[in-house]
Design brief:
The complex is a heterodimer of chains A (about 100) and B (about 160).
Chain A: H1 4-24, H2 28-53, H3 57-87
Chain B: H1 2-21, H2 25-45, H3 49-74, H4 86-110, H5 126-135, H6 138-158
Classes of the chains: A mainly alpha (about 100), B mainly alpha (about 160).
């Protein structure tokens, strides 16, 4: 039987990879996909706790996270399309109007 | 069972690594699909049949198709190498490593590998999920429908031509 800590370790690795991509990548779509990766890492932690605590509520939370991720993807990709139409670029360094 | 978990965990980590390192968004998207599918297998091993299917259909199916569609639509090619801000260059890697080791230490401290085994059986079937969803979580479920509606309207308005 795989112990709980191994599931959580996998979750942590995926989350940190997503965070690293979020910080280091320049392409706005890749950054967005890194957010999806982090959401999935959290989903895995929910699943593992749900299994090991014998409580189904964790799976309901994963369901809601997937729904929110779908809504987020729709709105976020629409924003990216609008951004590309206005700036002709997908590089986040070209979108620095609010940078100090 | 145990071996299967480690195989698919390794696949997920390698694909995630490839996704972060890859410079072309389409390759990143395909790697992310591999991660999502191997996580679906891990969900199956955790006894969450319904959520594994949802993961493949909704996440790897619907959401990632949206991503690939936008990548193709915007013709997102090779990411051009660029000067990073000084903050990211000096603090990025140390912060990521600090986060990584901190989380691992907390996990190993709180949940040592020898801790309690899970209950023998957890019913993750559509029937059990649906019963719970429409009894205890019926209000969040209804609120979710409003969220989806707002997201659809927002996406249409944002992606309009004259914005």
């Amino acid at each position: 039987m795989v112990p709980l800590s191994h599931y959580l370790a996998l979750s942590v690795i995926l989350f940190v990879l997503g965070a690293a991509g979020f910080i280091f990548r320049r392409n706005i779509i890749t950054v967005f996909m890194c957010i999806e990766l982090m959401l999935n890492a959290v989903n895995l932690a929910f699943m593992a706790f749900s299994r090991f605590l014998g409580n189904l509520d964790g799976q309901i939370f994963v369901f809601f996270v997937i729904v929110v991720a779908a809504a987020e993807a729709a709105v976020g990709l629409a924003i990216i399309i609008a951004l590309h139409r206005n700036r002709e670029s997908l590089n986040i360094e070209d979108v620095d109007a609010m940078k100090m | 069972m145990t071996l299967l978990f480690y195989i698919f965990a390794a696949v997920a980590v390698l694909a995630a690594l490839n996704m972060v390192l890859q410079r072309t968004p389409v390759y990143s998207a395909l790697s992310l699909i591999v991660v999502l599918c191997s996580l679906a297998v891990v969900y199956l091993l955790l006894g969450a049949d319904f959520m594994a299917v949802i993961q493949v259909i909704v996440y790897a199916g619907a959401i990632m198709v949206l991503f690939v569609f936008v990548i193709m639509l915007l013709n997102a090619g090779h990411e051009r190498p660029s000067h990073r801000s000084r903050l990211v260059r000096w603090l990025g890697a140390p912060i990521i490593f600090a986060l990584f080791f901190e989380l691992l230490v907390v996990i190993w401290d709180q949940f040592p590998p020898t801790s309690a085994a899970p209950p023998a059986h957890l019913d993750g079937s559509p029937r059990a999920i649906g019963t719970l969803l429409f009894h205890n979580y019926v209000l969040p479920f209804e609120v979710t429908s409003i969220l989806i509606l707002v997201a659809v309207l927002g996406a249409v308005v944002l992606a309009k031509k004259e914005f």
